[in-house]
Design a protein that fits this description.
Number of domains: 1
Mean pLDDT: 84
Number of helices: 6
Bound molecules: guanosine-5'-triphosphate, magnesium ion
CATH architecture: 3-Layer(aba) Sandwich
Low-confidence stretches: 1-26
Order of helices and strands: HEHEEHEHEHEHE
CATH superfamily: P-loop containing nucleotide triphosphate hydrolases
Structural class: alpha/beta
CATH class: Alpha Beta
Radius of gyration: 18 Å
Strand content: 15-25%
Number of strands: 7
Largest sheet: 7 strands, mixed
């Protein structure tokens, strides 16, 4: 019965996914895993642009600021032939929306921390604000991805390595044992955008997190029956 429920869920998921992204994903596609991914970072760093490029193949030079939160989805076939649906939550970076985004963080299997590699204040803000902001709401097995966007505009490549090292170190102090990855991307050129989400999907399949759905998702521990007769 449980098995049947999971199959029905996968079928419904595949249908919704094809509607959300506009991709011609077959409705017969069976999803092996569905996970929530949250994307945070300062306003203007390119969160929406990265997601749009990944899900719609589109890039707008004048992207509008996100208000509250938007949700998109992307289905990826991994190297082990598993279909992983990423439900991607795009949050607003503007300060006036930050308290709203807190409530969206819970239940994320992966978190993308985006900064603009030409604006190192946005990297410092990951350290000073965003890491702490999400820390208390996330599970230990959440994957953390530090994303340097707008790589197409970068003049001095040498600055990036120490920034990644500093951010990774600071994230490790907050969440020892966390799975942390670093990516340099360009939403504008499409550089590393597919690789970024494919890498997340592979990692999730290899180690399905607590907050996930589908045939690969870990089962909740069975409730042991009390032997007490009262
Ligand atoms: N050159 C270049 N510009 C980019 C890139 N990514 C985003 N942009 C531009 O940066 C601006 C901000 O991008 P958004 O995607 O709206 O940024 P955001 O992080 O979603 O901003 P908020 O929704 O306000 O938090 C837009 O004008 C984009 O066109 C990139 O890789 N290269
Ligand atoms: Mg946005």
């Amino acid at each position: 019965m449980n098995f049947l429920k999971k199959r029905l869920f996968a079928f419904a998921g595949a249908f919704i996914c094809s509607v959300c992204t506009g991709f011609s994903v077959s409705s017969a596609l069976e999803l092996d895993l569905t996970c929530k991914v949250i994307v945070v970072g300062d306003a203007g760093t390119g969160k929406t642009s990265i997601i749009k490029k990944a899900t719609q193949g589109e890039f707008l030079l004048e992207e509008r600021p996100t208000i509250g939160v938007d949700i998109a989805s992307l289905t990826i076939k991994t190297s082990s032939e598993k279909n992983v649906k990423l439900q991607i939550w795009d949050t607003a970076g503007q300060e006036r929306f930050r308290s709203i985004s807190t409530s969206y963080i819970r239940g994320s299997a992966a978190t993308l921390f985006v900064f603009d590699c030409n604006n190192l204040d946005s990297a410092a803000n990951l350290q000073q604000y965003w890491f702490e902001h999400v820390r208390q709401h996330l599970d230990e097995d959440c994957i953390f991805v530090i994303v340097a966007n707008k790589f197409d505009l970068l003049q001095n490549y040498d600055v990036l390595t120490p920034v990644f090292e500093r951010l990774e170190g600071s994230l490790r102090d907050i969440k020892p044992g966390a799975k942390i990855k670093c990516f340099e991307v360009s939403a504008c050129f499409g550089l590393n955008i597919d690789a970024l989400f494919e890498d997340i999907a592979e990692a999730l399949v290899n180690s399905p997190p607590v907050y996930s759905f589908g045939v690969l998702a870990p089962r909740a521990p069975e409730k042991t029956q009390s032997k007490c007769s009262c």
